[in-house]
Amino acid sequence: MTATPMHPKYEVVIGLEVHVQLATKSKIFSWSSTAFGAEPNTETDPVCLGMPGTLPVLNAAAVEAAVRLGLAAGCKIRPRCRFSRKHYFYPDLPKGFQISQFDEPICEGGAIKFRLHGEPHSVRLTRIHMEEDAGKNLHAAAGVSFVDYNRAGVPLCEIVSEPDVRSAEEAAEYVRAIRSLVRYLGIGDGNMEEGSLRCDANVSLRLHGETKLGTKAEIKNMNSFKNVRDAVEYEVKRQATLLDKGERIVQETRLWDASRGVTQSMRSKEQAHDYKYFPEPDLPPLVVDEAFLAKVRATQPPLPEELFIKYTTEQGLSPQDAGVLVADRATARYFDSSVSSGAPAKPAANWIINEVLARVSDPRDLEGDAVPVPAKNLAELVGCVQSGTLSSKQAKDVFAKMWAEKRTAGDIVKAEGLAQVSDAGALEEACKRVVAANPEEASRFKENPKLMGFFVGAVMKETGGKANPKAVNEILRRLLG
Amino acid sequence: MDPRAATSTIASIVPAVRAGKIRAREVADAYLERIAREDAALGCYVRVDAEGARRSADAVDAAVKAGRDPGPLAGVPLGIKDIFCTKGVETACASKILRGFVPPYESTVTARLAAAGAVSLGKLNMDEFAMGSSNENSAVGTVKNPWSLAHVPGGSSGGSAAAVAASLCVGATGTDTGGSIRQPASLCGVVGIKPTYGRVSRYGVIAFASSLDHPGPFARTVEDTATLLEVMAGADPLDATSVPQPVGAYAKAARAGRQSGSSLNGVRVGVPAEYFAAGMDPEVEAAVRGAHEELARAGATLVPVSLPHTRYAIATYYLVCTAEASSNLSRYDGVKYGARAADPKSLEELYARTRGEGFGREPKRRIMLGTYVLRAGYYEAYYGKALRARRKIADDFAAAFAKCDVLVTATSPVPAFKFGERMGDPLQMYLADVLTVAPNLAGIPALAQPCGFSTMGLPIGLQVMGPPLGEEACFRVAGAYESRTSWHEKRPPDVGGLK
């Protein structure tokens, strides 16, 4: 929990429900593609459209993704779970019910671990269950609506937290941690703007020290981390104002309106649906056996917290730097790859944080072949600085060229003759020549050490700017001393 | 080619077509002609697909001519219950709400039948969404019992049973949720089987109650029924509840039972006391007792057994089937396909009017009941309890099958009743299923076949139940009984021109 409470008088209690779309090739119960952005109603099939007589068949890849997420969050995976039907009428729901999990979710317990201001933090989970996504209603002008069923049947995991979250900031970081986890596991892209990661927050207040939970409002429609933070902040203020006035909180669902910065009532508890849950008769119980778990465990990738510890201990990075590197799987992989290509950890981290990340809008751009400076090329550049071939300043210019022209450091150094002269013999000769040519300045050097600048400049001129300044300094100090 | 002839069976037609002795086209034309003459009075077909039938028949003939294998059902004219989705052919489940729905996909069953060379003549009438025991709940007209036009053919697969009885097809498909194959087979004097749950894929079969729906075949003889089931059955990747075990040799089992002499030596036939309860027509009871004696003469041993939870079967069945029906029928909302109310003023009105105008009385009744059963806080009291009772009923069967190989009972406690006789009293109508619902709850195979006629000349049906995946035992016993009796050889009179 955060050290300083979010509100001086009330304790803020937040539980979150996060929906994550799983990036399987086909839908959770049928064969059409889950690809985002296709023409409306082109990624559909009779099953996901809920056509008469069609039946769901569970996609094994979706189960694997859910198990992967559950194992990463330390959940208990049910050896046998089942699906249930959740009924309500809405045009984007083709069957009049959603196939979800109710009394037997695939994962129970566990926690999402993340860092808040560098400190380890944990939010317990109630459960993770699998379900199918609905389609999307598109409201045209003049009371006309259309429905796009491309999204209908895309697999979802709903991650339900315990009411452990105590501030708006923590809520936003929790959701960010889930996105990071989903990307690390390679089971989804966690894009809030595209809706592949969606979040609802149950917010209630109670006096500090009170143990009974207050009446909650459920906040929906938060489409970014900033929305989560802003919406919860607004809701806390709204509820605190009501409570201060002695009024009661109504249990209801409220929609976040990002343009106006307010939450608005959508439906109250009295209007709440009766979902008439019952076990889905078209799907046999799902059995997750030890062999399957072992297979998933064996292929789990390293997770952010694990990497954070490795980076801060074995590799001696600061918690701040390690935090930046592990925030996204692509960044961490880029860093690991630079290090395994020979770059020492600290300079590699500095280069990535200061130069590489500054040039990409999304860290995921570092994955694949499109990145202009692959990790091994960065390692080569770091090597040039380490060996003294390039000065730090030169290296920055070289990096800019590498990025812009997709060239390697070696190629640029060679083509432009940038290598510093570090050969002790050649430098010694050049220094001797400069000292000999300037006897007056040499004699005044002892009273006026600032003349060093003059000599270094002269040597640089003599060597066409390629001399290693550090080495030149040392030689001149000896010759003039 | 006379559809009423004794040789108008799968067992006779297929070898003749395969050998080129008769063309599939000739067979199809003979049936289409008979439908044109007879069906106006009977109302079995909701849609005759003459063009499609001729096209399929011609394809079979072309295969024969080219020396290719035309399939195990080469040229067999079939009727398809309107609950099976047929690609490009309207499938409306005898409901107004699905009027005009043309599926862009084919049910697994009809796809398998077509691949085997069968020729579909068209779609058969039924109770709306398979809800009913008299075919009076169809939104597109009732079906008459070919044995007496004043009597119902049974339901919900009334069109299928009546069409087979009246020789308007050689075989037909049906679905059985609480007796919807067996009861009309019994009332129309034909053979039908509800196989083990999952033995036949439900993909493309419009759902009534998912955990109780069993597709299956109808035919005039046990062997023909077995041959159809062999083609229809088998695991299906599109149905997660279909069973993976290999399909049995059903036709062979039917023929084994037919061998002369004591073909049932060593077979134990269970006689459950609970299936001879009060309310059974004495003529039906006499016919079934007579069938037991006939089976004993064929070498079977009669074993008295008890199924004590039978009395909970109807209540359990109506809790489960209404709950599942209310859920399955949610998708008919006017948004995507089928009928839609004109000019709704709001979304709520679109739903309320589409469903209010589109569903008939019986689907509405079951949606209401099922919604009540599933509402929050009552799940345990109703659906949960029904699931436990269902388990007990299945346990009863398991215990009985430890003592016997098959159970033989009546299918319907009464012969066909008259139109209108039970429509005023839904409970009376639901009790028509009293002998047939338990096998659906337990998922075990159950076959119906003719075993006599009432003094009024209406057929009486026998029911042969087997353990899970025990279809071969059912066919063997039914084949033996059929070979020792001649009920299946009787034909109802032609009704052409009558109305």
If you had to describe this structure to a student in words, what would you say it looks like?
The complex is a heterodimer of chains A (481) and B (499). Chain A contains 15 helices and 17 strands. The model of chain A has no long low-confidence stretch (mean pLDDT 92). Chain A is α+β, with helices and mostly antiparallel strands and 481 residues long. Chain A has helices at 60-72, 168-185, 225-244, 290-298, 304-312, 319-326, 329-340, 345-356, 375-387, 392-405, 409-415, 424-437, 439-444, 452-462, 469-480; strands at residues 10-21, 76-77, 80-81, 84-87, 97-100, 107-108, 111-116, 119-132, 136-139, 145-148, 155-161, 197-207, 217-222, 252-257, 262-268, 278-279, 286-287. With 499 residues, chain B is of the alpha/beta class. Chain B has a single domain, classed as Amidase signature (AS) enzymes (Alpha-Beta Complex). Chain B is built from 16 helices and 11 strands. Chain B has helices at 10-18, 24-42, 50-66, 108-115, 158-165, 182-188, 222-232, 250-258, 282-297, 313-328, 347-358, 361-374, 380-400, 426-430, 437-442, 471-483, and strands at 45-48, 77-81, 119-124, 171-176, 191-194, 214-219, 268-272, 301-305, 406-410, 446-453, 459-465. Chain B has an 11-stranded mixed beta sheet with strand order 1-3-2-4-6-5-10-11-9-7-8, with helices on both faces. The longest helix of chain B is centred in the last third of the chain and has 21 residues, at 380-400. Chain B is globular. The chains are: A alpha+beta (481), B alpha/beta (499).
